[in-house]
Amino acid sequence: MNPAILTAILQAQSAFLADSVAPAVWQQALRQLLPLAPARGGLLASLRDDGALGILAISEGPQLSQPAALAPLQLPCEDWQRLHRCQPCWVSLDQLQALNQPALAWLAAQAGTRWLALPLHRENHLEGIALLAVQEHDLLPLQLDELAPLLATLAQLLVFQRQKAASAAEQASQRRQQMALTTLYRITELTGDDDLALMQAALQLGVDYFGLPFGAIGQITAQDYRVVATYLDGQTPQLAAHYPLAETYCQLTLETNDVFSVSAMGSSRWSQAPCYRRFGLEAYIGVPLRVAGQRYGTLSFSSPQVYSRLFDEIDVGFLRLVARWVETALERQQARSERKRLHERFQKIGQEVPGLIFQTRMNLDGSSAYLYASAGIEDIYGLQPEDVANDASRVLAVVHPDDLPAVVASYMQALETLSHWDTIYRVNHPVKGEIWVEGHAKPERTPEGDTIWYGIATDVTAQKQVQLQLEHAKQAAEAANQAKSQFLANMSHEIRTPINGVLGMTRLLLDTELSPQQREYADTVRYSGDVLLSVINDILDFSKIEAGHLALEQIDFELATVLHELGSMMALRIREKGLHYQAELAPGVPARLRGDPGRLRQVLLNLVGNAVKFTDTGGVQLSISVASQSASHCTLQFSVRDSGIGIPAEKIPQLFNRFSQLDESTSRRYGGTGLGLAICQQLVTLMGGEIRASSQPGQGAEFSFTLPLQVADPASAQPAPRVPQAANGQHYRVLLAEDNPVNQRVAVKMLENLGCSVHTANNGLHALSALARQDFDIVFMDLQMPEMDGIEATRAIRAGDAEVRDPAIAIVALTANALADEKARCFAVGMNDFLVKPIQPEALAGALRQWGTAP
User: Fold this and answer.
1) Do residues 76 and 90 lie in contact, with contact meaning Cβ atoms separated by under 8 Å?
2) In what order do the strands lie in the sheet with 53-60?
3) Which residues are paired to 227 by β-bridges?
4) I need a surface site. Which of 367, 451, 619, 700 has the fewest CB within 10 A?
5) How confident is the model over 684-740, as pLDDT tens digits?
6) 213, 33, 22: which is closest to 134 by C-alpha?
7) Do 725 and 709 contact (CB within 8 A), yes or no?
8) Nearest CA to 65 among 30, 18, 35?
9) CA distance 180 to 312
10) By the 8 A CB rule, do 41 and 61 touch?
């Protein structure tokens, strides 16, 4: 082997002992290779991954120059194929001149010079080339085989150099990865309440990582860019600077919609961008920021100097993670600003709203504190917001001791069930004394298990005092109402009792043989008694309606029967005045209905009675028609028209007022209490209808009302009741307990006319004694009697304490008190029925038929 070649090989192999291949090694290898070729000049180049040739050493004439950047060498396809097959090839002059390298241009200009490309390969893998400039007459002695060991050694040295470079790059990457993780950890460990200071500290750590002097967080509003946080190495941060968005690097970042980076702006394709012309930053890396799902701005680091390397994936990943932390900090800043704004708003509201607005937190360990308390806490508890900021239990110290257990119990119940807390309690206010407070709050459980309360507390002392006054007034009103009811009951009893005697005896008298003149006198007495009884009934009915004690019946009835009874009751008065009366049922009106026939009869009797009263000539017409109807319900239209004196239009609105008369002359001429139409209106309203009136003076009047009723099943019709008579063979043993001699005589005579044998008792004690001595079929019991009244006597009978023979005997109350409370008292002690004085034979007959037990 040529000693010069061996020397070159040994010197090249010595480079394997170093940690890296120095540039001088390649220069020495080229210097030794050129005379061995022999070649007038040339270069050594490594084949890069992108196909470009990286110059390791290049000669310029007899001199060697430092390596320079070489553009990719695009050799003819067949040349590259030969080189990759590890075969030498000739390179054309045009290819070399296209490289635009001064040294190659000088060599190419030498006459007779050709270029020979020798492959530097290892294990048939091309690692680089030796490009030699030779004279054609030097080709013959060229022995390429002798150069093969040297070329193989240079190829191995290229592999060694790549391995060392890759190892160094890997170590550098690991160091930067470790540095990135350490920096991220330090950023996440940043704590404090000042979000701006935290973001500036994070920017400083980012500046240290990248080795770039400037870091910034910018916000975009429309087409404006504003710096909200910045760090400039060694200088005071400049905040709130505004720039047009189009003139900033942020614009390029947003267009990329991801990390945008450039190491040398001036030599990049963005060298003409407006941001570079304005700021002249060579190195830049930035990423978009999104806060609460919306575009916010950018995070960036930059320098006016060219960056020493290209930004890689480590830098990109680091910047993205820092951006996430910054986004969180910005969201936290916005949330804190929003809370501050709401707090200020609540403070303003709290200053205007009376009472306390609060938010408290109760922790799992039982401790609690006011997260927010309006200024009204002083008015409610005599405390300041700062007094309860760390301990809410200070409020309990001013709660009235008697109310404290109930307050705590209601609070704990609401806490367990997460339901509303609503309570009223007393507070011992340090300034105002004892006050009443009304509290309302809603609890919400946090993910940590604590409870947040949102509520209000107001001073309701004035309302409580009014409430107490109202309660006292209510009690007084109830007492007055009770006194009124008692008065009405007494008056009813005191008036009905003699009327019962008058009307009863008059009826008995009319059943005897009388002369025409005597009968006329007796009829006059009966009529006068009926009028007086009507006045009393009006007053009692109105009192019942006012007190809400009037109950409506729901029974089946025949409308024709109601009209027949109405005609019978009005016949005498109509005949006396010489009027004609007509009642018409329109086609389609159901024969049987369900409702309160008694109250319907009362309304019609009042309206027809008024029509008769105010009509001197002509007549009265009652018509009934169907306003609407379904299978089970119907609404009937009742109309009462007369030909009387009529009513002025301006007086019609007053007709249904209580105690209302058209004028004094009307009252004097026609009489009346002025309650009849008021009662009619209230009864119609209670039954679900409406009443109205229309009239012209001198042309009569029309009163009409609608009434919703149920349609009764025709199959449910019952035969008309038959009054028991002595001739039918039934004989009732009756005990009559009545203290008034006149009423006693009237009742005895009526019962005897019905075929009964009657035993009398003057009070409850006598009644008990009689029931203990003998058997009876039914008892008629007056309520108000001396020594023992009817209520006490009935209670003793039902209890079996009086040794009566039949404790379950039927007992029918006889009373002059027509109020509902009296009826309820009777049923409460066990009475079976209730008859109101004055007693009518028909009522007695009905009670006998329903409750009597005659053999």
Assistant:
1) no
2) 63-65, 53-60, 41-47, 125-135, 113-122, 89-91
3) 218
4) 367
5) 999 999 999 998 888 899 999 999 999 988 766 555 444 444 334 478 999 999 988
6) 33
7) no
8) 30
9) 12
10) yes
Residue 85 is given by DSSP the state: T
Write the pLDDT tens digit of every residue in 9-39: 888 888 888 877 888 889 899 988 888 877 8
HSE (CB half, 13 Å, CA atoms) of 272?
A: 1
pLDDT tens readout for residues 574-629: 888 899 999 999 999 999 999 998 889 889 988 998 899 889 999 999 999 999 99
Q: Name the token pair of 152.
A: 């193989």
Task: Judge contact between 45 and 37, C-beta under 8 A.
Answer: no
Q: How far is Cα of residue 625 from the mean position of the Cα atoms in its chain?
A: 50
Residue whose token pair is 């000693």: 3
pLDDT, residue 438, reads 93
d(CA 84, CA 629): 109
pLDDT tens track for 402-435: 999 999 999 999 999 999 999 999 999 999 999 9
The count of other CB atoms within 10 Å of the CB of residue 488 is 19
The HSE-up count of residue 475 (CA atoms within 13 Å, CB side) is 5
Q: Residue 637 contacts by C-beta under 8 Å, 6 or more apart in sequence? A: 624, 625, 626, 627, 704, 705, 706
**pLDDT higher than 90, residue 288:** yes
For residues 56 and 45, is the Cβ–Cβ distance under 8 A? yes
DSSP codes of every residue in 648-696: -GGGGGGTTSTT--S-HHHHHHH---S-HHHHHHHHHHHTT-EEEEEE-
CA within 13 Å, CB half, 815: 25
The DSSP secondary-structure symbol of 379 reads: H
Parallel/antiparallel/unpaired status of strands 433-445 and 451-459: antiparallel
Query: What span, in angstroms and rounded, lies between the C-alpha atoms of 688 and 552?
Result: 11
| CA dist., res. 827 & res. 818, Å (int) | 14
Q: How far apart are CA 328 and CA 342, in angstroms?
A: 21
Tokens linked to 449: 């298990």
List the one residue out of 690, 655, 691, 693 whose CA is nearest residue 674. Answer: 655
**Tokens at 633, concatenated:** 């319900």
> Quick one: pLDDT at residue 726?
38
CA–CA gap between residue 623 and residue 68 (Å, rounded): 125
How far is residue 745's CA from residue 433's CA, in Å, rounded to a whole number?
A: 71
What is the mean pLDDT of the segment spanning 797-824? 83
| Cβ atoms 497, 816 nearer than 8 A | yes
Alpha carbons 536 and 487: distance in angstroms, whole number = 13
Q: For residue 720, give the 3-state DSSP assignment.
A: coil
- CA separation (Å) from 610 to 470, 570, 613, 673? 42, 11, 5, 12
CB 45 within 8 A of CB 78: no
Distance CA 218, CA 225 (A): 6
Asked whether the beta carbons of 771 and 797 are under 8 A apart, the reply is: yes
**Nearest Cα residue to 695 out of 756, 627, 607:** 607
At 615, list the tokens.
Answer: 């009509």
| Whole-number Å distance between alpha carbons of 277 and 218 | 20
- Give the distance between the most distant pair of CA atoms in the chain: 184
pLDDT band at 138 (very low <50, low <70, confident <90, very high): low
Q: E strands within 317-432?
A: 356-362, 368-373, 421-429
